Amino acid sequence: MDKQAFIKRAIDSNAFVSTNTYATAVNPKVWDTDLRAYQEKNIVYTNHTTMFDFRMPGRDYTVTIDAAPTAAAEVAETAAVTIQPLTNRQVTFTPTEYGSAMQTTRKELARAFFPVMENMVKKLGYALALKKDSLGVSTAQSGATTALVVNNVASTAIASSDTLSLSDFTKAVRVIKNYYYKPVKAFICNSQEEQVLNITQLQKANEFGTRDAIDKGLVGQLFGLKIYVTDSIPVASNKAKMLVQGQSQTGEEAVGYAIKRDAIIERDYDPFYRAESLIAHEEYDFKVLHPNAIVTVESYAA
Q: I need a surface site. Which of 57, 87, 218, 292 has the fewest CB within 10 A?
């Protein structure tokens, strides 16, 4: 038997090839990777939190939060240096599972003009991203120490003339600085974007000089405060609350994001109904780390 015939017999009999049942197990589809990629494209707010990795056994997780020390003091030549207390706080995260699912039929898979399963993965990725950012925003808004309203009117009396202006940003920045935090970013809804872009002092994102410096959702910068637009700022009764946030003096974000389990996608087929299902789910939690570093500014929003 020549060499080629020997190799052919080996392949014909018991070689490990891509059509084997075992091969489909060790070479799975990459839906999980695609799902996370589609989710990442749509996340804005979560990218600006302090992330805690809790991919380990356990239900609740407690973290130690940085607390700023007081300023140093003058010391006389023969006097002892005053010892100040090392103060910190603790915050407990309790991750919750969030998920979404979509279904199609085998008949539609055969008739469709586009890859239905891939399209469903994209939509599930967006659904997970929308939930995650919305939960992060609502956590920050409810945990903020300071709540301002445009033109100092009552929240119930907001009219179409009560739109965001330069003074609303400077006031929010002053409040955050008074608590000894560093103001760094603001988050607005799509309706408030037009109001902000009309502020003449705003340096628009397309004026930064390089596209490499532009983060997702970044629309401009005002006195060092980066402004992001996100779909996750809720609009109700023609009102919306802008978020202005700061960092601790050691760079810790105002909100923490604890990840328990990455987003995964699973497939199920029901032969009775000839239905293909995709189920996407993940586990995480948000908590406010520095409530004094968050200011909400409520304004008119169409």
A: 57
Q: Rounded to whole angstroms, what are the CA distances from 181 to 65, 120, 143, 248, 296?
A: 14, 43, 16, 5, 15
Angle between helices 116-143 and 31-42 (to 10 degrees): 40
Q: How far apart are CA 280 and CA 267, in angstroms?
A: 9
Distances (CA, A) of 124 to 51, 105, 108, 184: 23, 17, 18, 31
Q: Is 37 helix (H, G, I), strand (E, B) or coil?
A: helix
Its domain, for residue 273, covers 29-300
Question: How many structural domains are present in the chain?
Answer: 1
Q: Using an 8 Å Cβ cutoff, are 64 and 33 in contact? A: no
Question: Please, are residues 162 and 238 in contact by the beta-carbon 8 Å criterion?
Answer: no
pLDDT tens digit sequence for 115-174? 888 899 999 999 999 999 999 999 999 999 999 999 999 999 999 999 999 999 999 999
Task: Give the model confidence (pLDDT) of 270-288 as tens digits.
Answer: 999 999 999 999 999 999 9
Tell me the whole-structure pTM to 2 decimals: 0.81
Answer yes or no: is 151 within a domain. Answer: yes
Residue 237 resides in a domain: yes
